């Protein structure tokens, strides 16, 4: 039992990372209806910028955090301005494929910069383990977990209670109607990408906290995508819950099934969950149920 | 305050929808725009509110002026800020948002918190039903409630000119009367000019000061509403009356119809 709990808790920590990555995808999808494939790259660049200021320039934690946020937000804004804005009014597939192009392009830049090397962040969070009732949790991961929860809370507050959030929700439903009420839809898109960039930076830093920055880092975006799709693509709560769930399934599955099949469960678990969810609920676990008048 | 000079509208560079439409409105007027389906009424409204551009439509000739400035090539959000609000046909609303949130979205172009609060109370004054349903998700409202909601949302932008597209669509006669009474009140109390596109010619002519009739992308007839009500063609084709205000009987229908022509 203790063993099971231990695996679950470790899974929750990993899951919070997936949830953070998925949050950025959900934000963009919610108002623009574009599924961004390039979000993993944005996350990776967030981590890289943070490393650059912290490890590369040797700045203290806070001084490195803010420029990393700003740069990733600017990268998000640049994606929106340069790549996606010209495609407003075009079929959504065009925008979707554009994010695939960005996926490849940003991936290229990322690998080009790293040149196959690995960058390791200096420890910027307290190390050590917390022991509760026989279960041990790394403190730095626990902090990451709490930050993820806080961020989700903050995002849902923004959506629920601010004017910008109201504009974003309105835009999400109907672009043309939003325009007719005086909402500048293009500005909302810009804000969304900035917000998504900041969330990506948080996700990147939280990821780099537990693993090295190397050429595979952007592929956490795929896990984020799985989580976002399972959660229903436009539900922040769905992203959080499914993210945590996927982390637990991966970790527990790997612990108990790996010895039987010879390993690799971690890489398959996500897709198995995705397949199962899409079979049972094609619009995701927490997807928006369209109100239809009959 | 609004003048449309001989505009021509083309969709997707090929479909000519408006072929020279002119229309003028004064401050505080209620103007009705009548016409059969496909005559181009909605297109004319969209040309005024700028929404045409989101549908690959374009004003290719003529001009639209609002309070002296040309608005025919401006973005819809900019036109809203200038004071022209279109309440679209079919009562589209943000269905996942609550009634109150929908109304707040209407004031998105404004920044005066106190004014918005006061106007919200005013909207609830016009539509007490909405006040009762504040926190309801708007997707579940009935047709009449929806009409009130979209009009309330439009009012929140403090429009100088409101463009109403078929407010009576699918509503019961009693409700239509109520809605039009409120339209008149808004016009009187807020000094908002109103341009209303309607299929219900009887009620549209009874509340408006002036009316235009459109057909095939052209204005074919216009004049003071009181005078149009007396026009033989209007009576025959829009009010369902023949001769001296009598209701038309089926036995009088001839197997050939009187040639439709427009004489003003």
Notes on the protein architecture:
The complex is a heterodimer of chains A (294) and B (264). Chain A has 294 residues and is an all-alpha fold. Chain A has one domain (2-227). Chain A is built from eleven helices and two strands. Chain A has helices at 2-32, 39-56, 61-84, 92-114, 139-161, 163-173, 175-180, 185-210, 220-231, 236-261, 265-280, and strands at 129-132, 135-138. In chain A, strands 1-2 form a two-stranded antiparallel sheet. In chain A, a hairpin with a 2-residue loop joins strand 1 and strand 2. In chain A, helix 1 packs across helix 9 (220-231). Chain B is of the alpha/beta class and 264 residues long. Chain B has two domains: 2-230, Rossmann fold (3-Layer(aba) Sandwich), CATH 3.40.50; 232-264, no CATH class. Helix content of chain B is 35%, strand content 27%. Chain B has helices at residues 41-49, 76-82, 99-106, 113-126, 128-132, 143-155, 173-190, 201-207, 225-230, 232-237, and strands spanning 2-11, 15-25, 30-35, 57-66, 69-70, 84-87, 161-165, 193-197, 210-215, 218-224, 241-242, 246-247. In chain B, the strands form three sheets. Chain B has a six-stranded mixed sheet with strand order 6-7-8-3-9-10, with helices on both faces. A four-stranded antiparallel sheet of chain B has the order 2-1-4-5, covered by helices on one side. In chain B, helix 3 (99-106) runs parallel beside helix 6. The longest helix of chain B has 18 residues, at 173-190. The two termini of chain B are 25 Å apart. The interface between A and B is medium-sized, with 22 and 29 residues.
